[in-house]
């Protein structure tokens, strides 16, 4: 089983739709969960990070972590064409020194005007 | 807003040649990282660096790779003898506190080994 699994898509939705992006993971040691946005041939840009389980909201973006199910989600409300990008989930352990991020494959998202 | 910068943006080299990729992390950050992304594949961790030494490395980071912080601002990745399979996008990242803060990535260096 892969450590982090993410449906690569592509996912195409109309402007204004609610988008749901998800990742599952197998390593119960993961404590920090991040979502990055990556435009073509650019570096990952941090969108949100969450520690342990729960929800976090930032504008149109909501991140959810369910550690019991080893499942994380990113919701985008009122999606805009500028949200079109590849979305990467990433996670790491909570042990000081265990700093490496483990990434999902990335989901390519297109928002159609 | 502070950002991580990387040079060059593109590098083409012949197999067997040495390359040095350069990064300037965010100025008050203490932890530095290199990741790579082969075209169409996941972003993969290579190495983390703190207090002038490697703190963690992956199995990819073999003897052909080395990292250095030659001065107070630069962080470099050296590949001693490049292979075709080293062709990838290489990202530098930095973070403030390794246990709490998350990592901010640079724009990447696209390395092509011919």
Descriptive terms for the model:
A: mainly beta, 5-stranded antiparallel β-sheet, 0% helix, B: 114 residues, mainly beta, 7-stranded mixed β-sheet
If you had to describe this structure to a student in words, what would you say it looks like?
The complex is a heterodimer of chains A (113) and B (114). Chain A has 113 residues and is mainly β. Helices cover 0% and strands 57% of the residues of chain A. Chain A has no helices and 11 strands. In chain A, strand 4 and strand 5 form a beta hairpin. Chain A starts with a strand and ends with a strand. Chain B is mainly beta. In chain B, the strands form 2 sheets. In chain B, strands 2, 4, 5, 6, 9, 10 and 11 form a 7-stranded mixed β-sheet that branches. Chain B has a 4-stranded antiparallel β-sheet with strand order 1-3-8-7, with no helix packed on it. Chain B is globular and about 35 Å long. At the A-B interface, strand 4, strand 5 and strand 10 of A face strand 4, strand 5, strand 9 and strand 10 of B.
Topology record:
The complex is a heterodimer of chains A (113) and B (114).
Chain A lengths: L3 E3 L4 E4 L4 E7 L4 E9 L6 E7 L2 E5 L2 E6 L4 E6 L8 E9 L8 E2 L3 E6 L1
Parallel strand pairs in A: 2-11
Antiparallel strand pairs in A: 1-3, 3-8, 4-5, 4-9, 6-7, 7-8, 9-10, 9-11
Chain B lengths: L4 E3 L2 E4 L5 E6 L6 E7 L5 E8 L2 E5 L7 E4 L6 E5 L8 E8 L8 E2 L3 E5 L1
Parallel strand pairs in B: 2-11
Antiparallel strand pairs in B: 1-3, 3-8, 4-5, 4-9, 5-6, 7-8, 9-10, 9-11
Mean pLDDT of chain B: 92
The beta-strand count of chain B equals 11
Radius of gyration of chain A: 14 Å
Oligomer: heterodimer
| Extended strand count of chain A | 11
Radius of gyration of chain B: 13 Å
The termini of chain A sit apart by: 37 Å
Estimated structural class of chain B: mainly beta
Strand % of chain B is over 45%
Strand percent estimate of chain A: over 45%
Total number of helices of chain B: 0
- What is the ordering of alpha helices and beta strands of chain A? EEEEEEEEEEE
Shape descriptor of chain B reads globular
Q: Which stretches of chain A are low in confidence, meaning pLDDT under 50 for 5 or more residues running?
A: none
